[in-house]
Amino acid sequence: MTTETLRVRAAEAAPVTGSALSEIGWVAYRSLLRVSRTPIVLFFSLMMPLMWLLLFSQTFGSVVGRGMALPGAAPLPYDFVAILLPGIATMTAIQSASQSGFGMVADIESGYMDKFFVSPMRRSSVLLGKLLADGLRIAVQSMLVLAIAWVMTLLVGWRIPFATGFFGALLLSVLVALFGVAFSGLSNTVALRTRSTEATMTASFALTFPLLFMSTAMLPAQALPGWVQSIAVVNSVSYLADASRALILTGYDWAAIGKALVAIAIVGALLNGWRSKRSARRAAKVTRRSPRPPARAGAVVAASILSPEDL
User: Fold this and answer.
1) 22/64: higher pLDDT
2) What is residue 160's DSSP assignment?
3) Minimal CA–CA distance to 42: which of 95, 111, 119, 89?
4) Confidence of residue 242 (pLDDT cuts 50, 70, 90)
5) Predicted structure pTM score
6) How many Å apart are CA 126 and CA 20, to the nearest integer?
7) What contacts 24+ positions apart, CB below 8 Å, involve 146-149?
8) In this structure, is residue 87 part of a structural domain?
9) How many domains does the chain contain in total?
10) Closest residue by Cα to residue 134 from 88, 96, 78, 186
11) Nearest to residue 41, comparing CAs of 139, 112, 126, 137?
């Protein structure tokens, strides 16, 4: 199907009823539906965080716990896994954010993105819909990690305080999801630039461990070497980890939560702004070949550009 045919089809089929919210909802629905049909991708994005949760934390937990205890002081009232859990949740966000880039490559290769660019729907709806889908997916995955940690606390006797209870865990998942949405701008930008799954995977995974280990995600700041502490101060992951660790160990630290939100906003503005520029360049190339029809208020993406093969 040519781009011109797509443009004509979109112009004829798009209704004038609906709203921007319906467009965002349909884009998000389509993104989540595509992900649900490839569960192996979801499994691999969770495999590494779960390995860290169930294996790494137990293998090195006793050694790290003894090392962090102050001389002459009582042992820590919680296990190392409680300290590590915010880092594992952040790892989940970074791993899951890379999936957004993989989906972008698939959409480019299938021509689906070109359907968006020539349709009469709002371009902002495409971005917001995909961000909504990414956020929901990452929130669910992070809640799954926390739920497994809670089950292990009940059944195996892990000492994880969960100081803020269910609502604190929910807030932690929201923070992690927001960070994942912000970070997904990187994988999507690389996908738009290279159109390569391999390049997108390499760029995303290559940053995972530097971001985690050069922050307070794995250990509190006082347990890090001085030069790492200097880097951690400017690493956005540190602010997310500090707020998340407080929710698990001590309680609501609104100052830390506020700093985390500011850091997430900065990362999101930079990476998703970069992504928007790349998307606009590709859209310009497509619409030069086939001018976009006049915008029609509230055009619903399900009726205008989704076909059975897209779902």
Assistant:
1) 22
2) -
3) 95
4) very high
5) 0.81
6) 10
7) 146/85, 146/89, 146/172, 146/173, 148/50, 148/53, 148/54, 149/53, 149/81, 149/85
8) yes
9) 1
10) 96
11) 137
Which structure tokens are listed for 292? 């976009």
Tell me the C-alpha distance between 310 and 184, whole Å.
22
Domain that holds residue 276: 3-61+78-304
Answer yes or no: is 220 within a domain. Answer: yes
CA distance 263 to 268: 9
Chain segment 155-196, per-residue pLDDT in tens: 988 989 999 999 999 999 999 999 999 998 888 888 888 888
Contact (Cβ atoms closer than 8 angstroms) between residue 139 and residue 176: yes
Q: Binning pLDDT at 50, 70 and 90, where does residue 150 land?
A: very high
Structure tokens of 125?
Answer: 């709806």
> How far, in whole angstroms, is CA 179 from its chain's centroid?
6
Distance (Å, rounded) from C-alpha 276 to C-alpha 127? 8
Residue 199: Cβ-neighbour burial (10 angstroms; 0-12, 13-18, 19+):
middle
Does 161 fall in a domain?
A: yes
| Cβ–Cβ under 8 Å, residues 113 and 250 | no
Residue 71 counted as domain residue: no
**What is the DSSP track for 200-216?**
HHHHHHHHHHHHHHTTT
Yes or no: say if 224 and 216 are a contact pair by the CB < 8 Å rule.
yes
pLDDT given for residue 254 in this prediction? 95
